[in-house]
Prior knowledge:
Blueprint: E1 3-11, H1 16-30, E2 32-37, E3 41-43, E4 54-63, H2 67-80, E5 96-102, E6 107-108, E7 113-114, H3 123-132, H4 145-150, E8 158-160
Antiparallel strand pairs: 1-4, 1-5, 2-4, 3-4, 3-8, 6-7
Amino acid sequence: MNNKVYLLIGGNLGDRLKLLKAAKKRIEMYVGKILQESSIYETVAWGFEAENDFLNQVLVVKTDLKPLEVLDKCQEIEYKLDRVRTGSGYQSRTMDIDILFYDDEIIQNVRLTIPHPKLHLRRFTLEPLAEISPEYIHPVLKRSIQKILDKSTDATEVNKL
Length: 161
């Protein structure tokens, strides 16, 4: 099958670097081979107040899994890395794994929306994505990641580690 899935991994609780490393190890074991990884970026929380800043990284993974199987594996990895989900809304967490793209597919169902519905609004996603795939064309917006980043109105500071 050999599908390409773009993942954003990150968190702001615990040993953030160690958790990123653990997430990547598990992604390689359960989702597929990591083909590319961006630098690691540090940003303040987006959409809520948090004591600790987030570390985030974008990965490009080759997978034989279908989109919902990728979602299930990613949620399992989050859980194994002590992710706790309480209520709705944004909150601090040890690990969050978002599916940004799955090939050029457009998917919208109760459990999953691909491309990620907020990726074009978030500089903390766009910067690492533009680092490794600036020319990738967003299948819904029909613009390159670099062009989307250039037009971003998100003023959040994103710092490369």
